[in-house]
Amino acid sequence: MTLTRNALAQRDSTDSLATLREQFDLPAGIIYLDGNSLGVLPRATAERVQAVVTQEWGTDLIRSWNTAGWIDLPLRVGDKIGRLVGAAPGSLVVADSTSINLFKVLAAAVRMQAQDKPGRRVILSESDNFPTDLYMAQGLADLLQQGHELRLVPAEQLHAAIDESVAVVMATQVNYRSGFMHDMAATTARAHAMGALTIWDLAHSAGAVPVNLDAACADFAVGCGYKYLNGGPGAPAFVYVAPRHQERFWQPLAGWMGHAKPFAFTTDYQPAPGIGRYLCGTPPVLSMAALECGVDTLLAAEPLGGMAAIRAKSIALVDTFIELVESRCACFGLALATPREAARRGSQASFAHEHGWPIMQALIERGVIGDFRAGADGAPGLLRFGFTPLYVRHVDVWDAVEVLRDVLASGVWREARFQQKAKVT
Ligand SMILES: *Cc1c(COP(=O)(O)O)cnc(C)c1O
Fold it and tell me: In sequence order, which ranges of 145-205 are alpha helices (DSSP H)?
């Protein structure tokens, strides 16, 4: 049966998650398919941040660290994110950026393995991993000067490449370009069988797909606040450490907020018990207030089936998008770069095209906002479309594909204004 717009409108009318869209301030006339890069603004955020600024900061001033609970924000919001990624309270904390958190947990994992598996020097990761992950590992290895080797294989080969030379597996669960998704439980189990520890980057998983860190026996994880968690531009990130590892070592960014008694102002560092030692400096209160509003938009789905319901809708949206692009935009040179099998992908669909950049600029001008990612090693760039079931409707998929078809069929993307490069893609 061929899909029609009416059939998709019908799906929207029976969608049990449809009301969640009302939580957002979506500008009129756009279809937003970039929630994997910057989530949209929740309605609650402006008012909440305003209250933190005018009341908690403006009026209550320094007292708010205690009276408004600012000091507890990292753990409190961390526990909320924990509900979305299967982490028990006290095992996840909000702090810093994903890059910095990765440094902390990689340093901890390497240090643990130096004791448990002396002689192992391999950090195994993906050649197509998000660059910051690789850069942070390179930076740490250079700092340590202990001969660590960053061994890189394509994401699809990572699982099989885990052997007994590997100290730490550092993987991004959902690949930012292709959307390829690892089986976290299976790969963690293999790593453990080989004596390796795992670090999972959940930048494109948290709030996008069901994640169960505790059940998967994951060791460490990090993730982003500004993507599917809707925390706003530059929102703080999070870090998870399995309780069994939390107190084995300090992480090296031993700032005062990770101290057992920051306000004792002692000369010597004494790490806080539990996950608190993964904090470094003073939390960015305004950004954390905004992040909490974003996380709440996902927790609002809990009575409606939670991440499982979000995932079911996400799969339907992406399946429909792929089917419509392939049927209605055939012969325009688009090649699917995302696994067709839903279990092997996150909440996005990417298509390679030789002229991906100007095509995406033309789409954006027409109100369909996705983004462009340069291809790996000279491969064609990707048109990347993220699907956020909280606010993307089934008819949006239809309408976006119609615009894409029009942009491709008309050749409008060849116009000069779409060729201009920008700093951020
Ligand atoms: C987006 C993303 C990051 C971003 O890290 P920042 O420190 O927030 O800039 C890191 N890792 C992956 C896999 C990402 O997709």
Answer: 158-161, 184-193
Q: Which of 101, 158, 175, 176 to mutate to test the pocket of ligand 1 (most atoms within 8 A of CB)?
A: 176
Atom index in ligand 1 nearest the CA of residue 234 equals 8
Distances (CA, A) of 48 to 57, 60, 301: 12, 15, 20
CB-CB contact of 73 with 283 (8 Å) = yes
Strand ranges (E), 120-160: 122-126, 149-153
Going from the Cα of 250 to the center of ligand 1, the distance in angstroms, rounded, reads 23
Residue 237 CA, closest ligand 1 atom number: 8
High-pLDDT (> 70) share of the chain, %: 100
What number is the average pLDDT over the span 310-314? 98
pTM above 0.90, yes or no: yes
The yes-or-no answer on residue 226 being catalytic is yes
pLDDT for res 377: 79
390 vs 287: CA distance, rounded Å: 21
* pLDDT tens-digit readout, 240-278: 999 999 999 889 999 999 999 999 999 999 999 999 999
H or E segment and range at residue 73: helix 73-85
Q: What is the pLDDT of residue 1?
A: 65
CB 177 near ligand 1, within 6 Å? no
Q: What is the mean pLDDT of residues 152-172?
A: 98
Helix/strand/coil for 214? coil
Ligand 1 centroid–CA 103 distance in Å is: 12
pLDDT recorded at residue 25: 86
* DSSP calls for 287-344: HHHHHHHHHHHHHTTGGGTHHHHHHHHHHHHHHHHHHHHHHHSTTS--EE-S-SSGGG
Between the CA of 207 and the centroid of ligand 1 the distance, in Å, is 15
